[in-house]
Each structure stands twice: as C-alpha cells, then as structure tokens.
Write a structure and sequence with these properties.
Layout lengths: L20 E3 L9 E3 L2 E4 L5 E2 L5 E7 L17 E7 L4 E10 L6 E2 L6 E3 L9 E7 L11 E2 L25 H5 L10 H13 L10 H8 L11 H28 L20 H17 L15 E5 L2 E4 H20 L2 H6 L5 H27 L8 H12 L4 H13 L7 E3 L2 E3 L1 H13 L9 H12 L7 H24 L1
Helix pairs in contact: 2-4, 2-12, 3-5, 3-10, 4-13, 5-6, 8-12, 9-10, 9-11, 10-11, 11-13
C-alpha cells in the first residue's frame, strides 16, 4: 500500500476547531459536538487530490447555501467519498465542485474537486475524514484522526492566518475596487431601517422631527427615554439581518466569490480626517437652531422669533439663517480642503444629491394641502390614545416627510388640554403620547423611500454604485415583512 499523502498542502494556521475530536464550542452550531475529521483551511478553488488510490463511492452535489447541520443532509455540503485499497473510506467535504463520479478509479495525482464553502461551513476549507470500515456511521468510534496516517507537518510554522471578513462594511460594499459580494441588496435596505431612521431617535440632532420638538420646548435629552425602544428594535432587526445576511453571504461564498486576501492591509483607512471638524460644525449649527429661538435676543416684544418675511405667514427666522450659514460654510470648507482623489475614491458625485433635492422639493410642495387639513382638523380625528398617535403619526410619516408630520401631531396632542406630562410651547403632552409621536415619526419614516430624505439618498447612492435596489413598492414589501411586525411589538410593549 502506498503512503497516504496530503489532499492539499496546509497553508494557513491550524486552530483547535480544525482538529479531530470533541469541539467544546462549534463555530456554526455554538455547542459541543464531535469533529470526526481534520479541517484544512484553503483558498476557494484549491485543487483537492485523494490521499491514496481508491474507488469513488459517492460524489454528491448538495448545492445548499444555508448554514447549519439541520438544513440539509449531513452538513458536508458537496462531498466525495472514496474507498481506499486498504478498506478505509475517506470523505472530502465542503467542496465547491467535484470532477469525479461513482465508480471512478483515482489516485494521488487525480484532481477530484476544488475547495469551497458548501454545507455547514463558515470559511472555505476541506473537511478530511477517514473512516475505519465500510459503514455509514460517522461517530468518533468509527473514524481515525487523519493526522495519525498523513505525513507529519509542523503546524507551528504555519503562522499565516486566513482572514475573511464575515460581513463587509458599508464603505467596502460601495467600493468598486472590492465588489466581491453580489447578494447585498438586503444590507442597504437594513442600513435604511437602522441607520437612516431608527438609529436617530436618541437626540434632536439624530433626526429632524426630534429637533422640531426641541424647538417647541421639549428638553434636549428627553428623547433618551426612547432608548429601551431603540434597544428592542435593534435586537429584533439585527437578528433578522443576521439570518438574511448569513444566507446571502453563503450564496456568494458557494459561488466562489470572496475578497482578495491581502496581508498586512488595514481594514479601515481614514483619509481627510479633518472633515470631522466640519461635522462638529454642522452638529453645533443644528443645536443652535433649537437653542437660539428661546433666547430673548432673537425674539421681538411679542415673544415671537424674529426673522425675514418670505411669503404671507412664512418667515425665515434669524436662527435658521445662522444654521444654514454654518452648514453651508462647513460644506464649502470641506469641498475646498479635501483632496479630489479622496472624493474620487469615495465615488462622490452630485447626481444623487440633485435627485434627492428635486424629489423632496416636489414632496414638500405637494404635501402642504394634506398638512394644512391635518393642522385644522387634527383635533377632531378622535385620536386620543398613545398607540393611536403612534400609528397615525407613523402612517403619514411613511408618505409625507416625517418632520412636519411630527409637528402636526405634537400640535394636536398639545391642544387636548392635558394637565400632566411634558410642557411644550404647544401645550402639555403626556410622556407616553410624546414617546408614541416621536417613535412613529422617526421609526416609520423608514417604511418608504419618501418617508425620510436619507432613505432615497441611500437608494440613489446604491443604484449609482451598482447595487440593484428594490423598486418603490418592492421596498415597501421589505418594510411590511420586517418593520411592521417590529412596530406591532413596540405598540404592545410601550404604547398600549
């Protein structure tokens, strides 16, 4: 009998999970489980050879892209089983593809397949399993540690670790120099859910509706009361995202897609760090827009905020002018002081900005009649309970801009003559009702692309960078499936 040979030469560092025996914490199942073989981490597409001459008993294409042993056959994914001349059966698992069929006679020079990440696998590797006898049993009682039969290797010399980012960050996803993930529409959809909307609920600078409340007398840190709601929503949505992204990631890996592994390359590179200063300027400008109107220096004798009349009752206040001036100055300084190549690397264009600006100018014009009706008849709608305010504010914030919608319902609540709660310039509003209005406006602005300007901005940037985003109604199907159930849970826990 010829000596056994390595199916692929080990290249990357071997960890405890790779070895034969009992795993105390399985990296996919996260529980103790017997490992009946030896894992050899390898780049996708590495040629796999038999460890000895033998006959192919099984070449099974699983094609499953879902992780977990309970989702498909035995967790090996695409596998080849070979009966060696000495009577031992050898399993080669987690292949991307194989090139043999049952009955083929193979030897150490035969390429039986290439490495992949099919089956219960997190990273590309080959599962090598040697069974004592011709049996279907796969427990440790029926297997042999491959290292007992293969030529000795000094694994201590293998210091090079296989680095594969489990989830590409936003900037890597949008970067055209590393577009390895193809199934990433869900990433941008959940980015809109969590970052563009729900994540801004804690302070007035996080989302304009809360800034509107701040300018009407709600204290700056009052919105920190929304933290428990934020935590619940993040747990639920991130759990959903994890399962969706795990499936999408596995699909890409199974197809042979993966990032180029570059040694000693930092995952995060910051260029143009001075722009953080301009971000601080914008934050200060937003805070001032809520603080300055309360100062007597910016009020007339009647206590009204002074400003410049624009059209009929519309006035551009001095605090608003100051805010706009600071923001425009920050934008100008950023544009002038940031090297052009940085903007090129970030794929900066004016197209998405122009598209969003034109769209929302139209939205603001067309929504005025609806807001005027609500403002005049809102108190007669019969909305008196927090959960009703939550859904009413949220439903309209989904299609009208959430900032004026928030103001309309805050005005409605303030006119109900409550005696206990948060004192605003519009009247006293109960805490639970103010929470409901705030959450409805901030959270449900994520239900459509037009519910919040950043939503459409993310869509435009994604489309511009080759990520095919859902249509308007396609996106709504995402929000109906994943957001609305979360909002129902919010209502049950916080607003009933």
């Amino acid at each position: 009998m010829e000596q056994y040979k390595w199916p692929i030469e080990p290249k990357y560092k071997v960890c405890e999970h790779d070895k034969y025996g009992i795993r105390k914490n399985h990296y996919v199942l996260f529980k103790q489980r017997a490992h009946s073989g030896f894992d050899i981490t390898a780049d996708i597409g590495t040629e796999v050879h038999p460890i000895s001459k033998g006959k192919v008993l099984l070449a099974e294409f699983d094609g499953t892209t879902t992780e977990g042993y309970d989702a498909f056959n035995d967790g090996y994914g695409n596998k080849v089983e070979i009966l060696n001349e000495d009577g031992r059966r050898v399993v080669y698992g987690h292949l991307r593809n194989f090139f043999v069929k049952p009955g083929d006679i193979v030897d150490c020079n035969t390429v039986i397949g290439i490495t992949g990440c099919s089956g219960g696998s997190r990273v590309p590797h080959l599962h090598l399993e040697i069974r004592k006898e011709n049996t279907e049993e796969t427990g440790l009682d029926y297997t042999i540690d491959p290292l007992e039969l293969l030529p000795k290797r000094d694994f201590n010399k293998l210091t090079k670790e296989f680095t594969l980012e489990p989830y590409a960050s936003l900037w890597r996803i949008l970067a055209s120099d590393e577009p390895w993930r193809k199934n990433k529409r869900h990433i941008m959809v959940f980015f809109i859910f969590l970052v563009s909307n729900i994540g801004g609920c804690l302070t007035p600078i996080g989302d304009p509706p809360l800034l509107m409340g701040f300018s009407r007398g709600v204290s700056f840190f009052w919105s920190m009361r929304l933290f428990p709601v934020l935590v619940i929503n993040m747990i639920l949505l991130l759990s959903i995202f994890y399962h969706l992204d795990k499936k999408a990631y596995q699909k890409d890996i199974t197809k042979g897609l993966m990032p180029e592994v570059k040694e000693n390359e930092p995952l995060i590179r910051i260029k143009g760090a001075h722009n953080f200063l301009y971000i601080v300027m914008i934050v200060i400008a937003v805070i001032l827009s809520g603080v300055l109107p309360k100062l007597s220096a910016f009020q007339n004798a009647a206590g009204e905020v002074i400003g410049i009349p624009i059209f009929r009752e519309v006035t551009l206040t001095v605090p608003a002018i100051i805010e706009i001036a600071i923001i425009l100055l920050a934008a100008l300084l950023s544009f002038k002081t940031t090297p052009k190549e940085v903007r090129v690397q970030n794929h900066f264009t004016w197209g998405a900005i122009q598209e969003v600006a034109v769209l929302f100018i139209g939205i603001f014009i067309t929504m005025q009649p609806a807001l005027m009706v609500l403002k005049s008849a809102g108190s007669g709608l019969g909305i008196t309970e927090p959960f009703e305010m939550f859904w009413a504010t949220g439903a309209l914030s989904s299609f009208l801009d959430n900032t004026p919608t928030y103001l309309v319902f805050l005005t409605t609540a303030g006119a109900m003559h409550f005696t206990t709660g948060v004192a605003t310039t519009l009247g006293v509003v109960p805490v639970k009702m103010l929470m409901a209005i705030s959450c409805g406006a901030v959270f449900m602005g994520a239900n459509t692309y037009i519910g919040n300007a950043p939503n459409f901005m993310v869509k435009s940037l994604s489309d511009e960078n080759g990520i095919n985003m859902p249509s308007f109604f396609g996106y709504m199907w995402w929000s109906v499936r994943y957001l609305v159930p979360v909002f129902i849970i919010d209502m049950i826990i916080f607003f009933l």
